[in-house]
Amino acid sequence: MLEVVDPGLLLTLQDRGRPGYAHLGIPPSGAADVWGLAVANLLAGAPAGAPAAEATLGGLEIIVRETCLITLGGADLGAERDDGLALATGAAHRLPGGSRIRLTGSRLGLRAYLGLAGGIVADRVLGSAATYTPATIGGMDGRALRAGDLLTPVRRGDLAGAGLSWPSGVAPHPTTDAGPIRFVPGPDLRDLDPVVVDALAAATWRIGRASDRMGLRLEGPALPAGREIVSHALVPGAIQLPSDGQPVVVLADGPTVGGYPVLGVVPRAEMPRLGQLRPGDAVRFRAQDADRARAAWRAQQARLASAGAALAADALWLSLADLAGA
Amino acid sequence: MPDAASIRFRPRIERVGDAALILTLGDEVAPAVNDLVHRVVAELAAPAAAVAGLAAPVPAYASVLVPFDPDVLPEEAARATIVAAVSRALDGPLLPPGTLVEIPVRYGGRDGPDLAEVADRTGHSEVDVVALHAGREYRVFLVGFAPGFPYLGVLPGELELPRRATPRVRVPAGSVAIAGRQTGIYPFATPGGWHLIGRTDAILWDTRREPPALLVPGARVRFVPA
Fold it and tell me: N or C: where does chain A have the smaller number of CB atoms within 10 Å of the terminal CB?
């Protein structure tokens, strides 16, 4: 069990999300980087989409109240123990009661995922533990975590996975190509100047400071704005083009409906990369065919499945070695 | 307002990323188009028509977003399912009228801080604005923006105003507001750019309720001065 001493910039409980309620105005929410979430969970012997704690940038400080297993996925936010020992991302660590952990800050990426054995105990609303603060649902009373909050592992006292690390045969990142973020053009190209697709791909964009779990604001050359459209439903990844010509990309907590034309949509396999972009980061985009995007998603899911199988086998070996030693 | 006979449906289906399609039935805010939207949603959601790989459709004014899992349902099959639902919806009977929900409203004063300005800018007395707003039945065209926020129409043309130039940072929960030819109710305290003319104690969103939203797409609404 862990106690939050300082939540840092933003600490929430998130899982794979709450799809299927957009018709009631509820966005899917869930981890901004579901790959990082899966890494933390698979190392913790939990289903890939189980609840974990999503930490943002640095400043998080936690005290271990009861010896437990802690796993780290997502961005390397410089996790270290109070005795200075660095805690690697992509690994499971056994932490004795009384020790303290803090996130010292990031060089690359924005969000780290902290997993506990079997997942973290959380409120489930509409089938998901994902925290959506605007409607105060999910996670812990529907709010961001704060000092004094306790994080409880689903399998309390289970330390069996200590020492596990991400299988060396499986790439640790969601995509094998770190190039431009891919997007599938459309659906509102008839309401836009057709040059916008190439213009989006030609420019280097900076992530605006007002970006959060709802959306990323892109700053760069003004694209030719389209006309306002009759509002239609949005999905995470939708690249909206408001009248000022500066695109806004919808993220997990973003609006379910919008009246700006959507020039493209970032596909599922690329969403984890979006969730790791920090204000000030430079980013480029490249158009992608929907079939290629689907192939990338299948490859990503296959890698998670093989990592999960390899970790389960490693955990079994560890527990056998434990038994033999006892 | 165009009626059903004068509407020309030009359905089109487009890709939304790699795991959704959007069906667009028209480019206007009109009850006849929205009727068809909800009939298509009903067809897609009907248990008899259940198709593996299709997720809950998301209606808006004149469109339906259909998320699907391309690993279970190929895109061509998803498109065919949508086309079949449109054709059944066009041939099928009209939907029964949605449930009528009455919303008690305290108009004006502290509960509706923009009522005087709305009256002033539209050239009506405050009493007339209330009578116009409460004088007709609205339909829930869609739910969005915030959990349980209903987009209601069609507001009488006499009350049509653009959104406020500067949105409020915080609109109190339960505020009844107007903008353009729409009216809505804020379920939570959120930022908002509509004109606040009253407030209700009705609970628009309650996760212990099924469904949690008091007003669902297709429902009918009447405002009752409290």
Answer: C
